[in-house]
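Input chain follows. Return structure tokens only.
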Amino acid sequence: MADETRYTRVALYLQDKHPIREGMDYARYAEEKGFEAVWQAESRLVRDAIVPMAAFAAVTNRIKVGSGVINNWTRNIGLLAATFLTLDDLAPNRVICGIGAWWDPLARQVGIERRKPLKAMRETVEVLRRLLKLERVTFHGEFHYVDGIELDIVHGRREPRHVPIMIGATGPQMMEMTGEIADGAVLNYCVPPEYNIEAMEQLERGAARAGRSLNEIDRPQLVVCSVHEDRKLALDGARELLTQYLAQQPHIAKASGVKPEVVQEIQSILGWPATREQVRAAMHLVPDELVQRITASGTPAEVKTKVREYIKYGATYPVLYPLGDVKLMIDTFADGY
């Protein structure tokens, strides 16, 4: 018997494909259509997440606004806490801090040595959470060293802030630690739904260490969504994105099960940063089967069916990265899926 469950939790994911003012319009439209959240990416050296988050928060009233995800290496911990305090002043109880361990080669190319990423993330989450609770914090760690600091609120709400901290985890150890210390996991995109099987086991092991259950950990999942009534146009839209990401974010390629030789061939064509011409020249290396396996691409009915698979395998709601007509994608998911 088919699963007749109807899901309604859904969020919008914006990167750099649209001008920020268009993103503001999309955030408003998503709110009108009942979306739970809008998440702003911060990945390549193209767009900071905080400025768009503030813009989205300023033109909406209900929808949550998340960073999907910032990294834990490039912002001083005091400034990081003050930033999310400020966002919470703008949109009380609507802000989500999604944070990740970044990736190479980009981190290395800007002088960041991503050593001991688990310890670095653990320290970040602990100090950030304590500061947002308005505690006076002394913490002498390996990555964060603070002496008697607190958020200096002269004007505004002098009360602990509820800013969920969600870790964008991909590797098994980071995923397990996420289950232990975070409010939730931002599950990665460009992976097949079955990837979540092991992710759920890892989250559950970590949660058990903290005396929690898996159900206490929110699990939004980024999902590339290319929707069009013309199925071929939908698949080609996703193929272009995948070509670039498989070459430039090898951890995603590994998690999605793409053969190393395919990644190497794509990398041999693409430069850094890749030009549109280079991406299009390498697109033929990404077959339809792969596009359909690791994205939600196709007609409106097909993308809804694919998104349900991610929920079946443990995601709590999709964070949809729209390729093509953004409003069509929002309309497609407005009444559930």
